[in-house]
Amino acid sequence: MKALVTGLAAAAAMIIAGSPSHAAPDDGAEITAPGPQGKLHGSYIAPRDAMPIVLLIPGSGHVDRDGNSPPVVKSATMKLIAQGLAQRGIGSVRIDKRGMFASAGAIADANAVTFDDYAADVGSWVATLRQQTGRPCIWLAGHSEGGVVALVATGRVEGICGVILLSTPGRPMGQLILEQLANMPSAAALMPDAQHAVAALEQGETVDVSGFHPALQSLFAPQIQTYLIAAFRTDPAALAATAQVPLLVIQGDSDLQVTPVDAQALHQAQPAATLVMLPGVNHVLKIPDDASRGANLATYATPDLPLAPGVVPAMADFILSHTEG
Fold it and tell me: I need a labelling partner for 8 at 20 to 30 A (CA). Which of 62, 69, 154, 174 fits?
């Protein structure tokens, strides 16, 4: 799939300007779950003793299980989270989405997806992990769009312990895309066509993008418009309001793509949720060298830069505070 919310700021800026097995804890062992037409693949880091397991759901676009979307995004955010949780004894599975990377055989066309499809895959992973590990429930942690997928799954999948939303939109995707574009260079040239496209897609209508700026042709590409129509009609805050499991919202205040406004919307919709705001932290959950846009985006391509210190502790403490025994 083309990069959407998670990859928009970096990519568009460039255009315009099996079974669990023992393995080294720093990477994980290959694991599979049933997919629609073939197996879904991921990396499993076993928990310590009876500790919990977290399913890590990546964000939008052509992003792999580690949170990378080469050549632009190489932050390794999901892998770093898995490693950090392992240090606290918490297990994890980070996954390749259907139709991509090792899960390429799960569906013929990676663009032919909706949030419902991704939620069904979450259900397959949860069922597989419960069966193979004997755990009564599995935690979900979704980054960016992956958080919206986690919310969709929460209302449909049995055996979810709780949900952690990392840099997750609190508004429909169309609104978020327009806000992101408005804050980019050359916004004035992009906004009329972008507003037209979003309005049409929100109404369930496809859009001819052949005369659009190249950045918008990619963003609203014909092959993903069916996906966008469904995504633009999904309200993350409304989903959060109906969540019946423990909910943690983690948001950095230096995020160029998802803002504290989104985190507050999720929290207001579900007052029982825990909200953790992290100062100086950006979309890939790292701390840039300075407040400039260039320094912020540079962290997207720096896998060796560690996560912000507060990310994993907030996740682990929340998980363990809601774990019996």
Answer: 154
